[in-house]
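It would be a great kindness if you could assist me with a short task in structural biology. The matter concerns a single protein, recorded as an amino acid sequence and a row of backbone structure tokens. The record follows directly beneath this note:
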Amino acid sequence: MPTYCTQAELDDEFGEANVITWSNKDNRTQTVDADAVAAAIARASDIIDDRFRDSRYSVPITATSGGSGGIPRTVRMWACILAGYHLYVARGLRDEDTMNKMQGRRDDAMKDISFTLAGTRRLAAALTESGSPSAPVVAR
């Protein structure tokens, strides 16, 4: 399954120093933990796909216009915000001000996703051809 953002985009969104700090849970290195970043990006992408799975949009979401690398800019933004939030929370150290900002950004992204699913806003993205799920559905 493709992912909706890159480490470079996370660095642009939150600053490389923050991504390095948030990805290194043990403070042993001053370089980014690429595996932790990849896991956070995959988790964010999975959340987005799960929310859109039975919607009017095809999953994985692909741009019809206005995207880079075939991903709508809005979806890239959501993925960056969600991945950054997951990196920060997984780090385990909390600064109340930063946590409130990160939680607020995450909440705003999730509300924006909900508005999109409700039809209040629309993505420049490929639509499904029928009412059928556009990706595998896992029964639990």
Remarks:
- Residues 7-118 form one domain.
- The first helix runs from residue 7 to 14.
- The chain has a mean pLDDT of 88.
- Helices lie at 7-14, 16-23, 34-52, 73-91, 96-118.
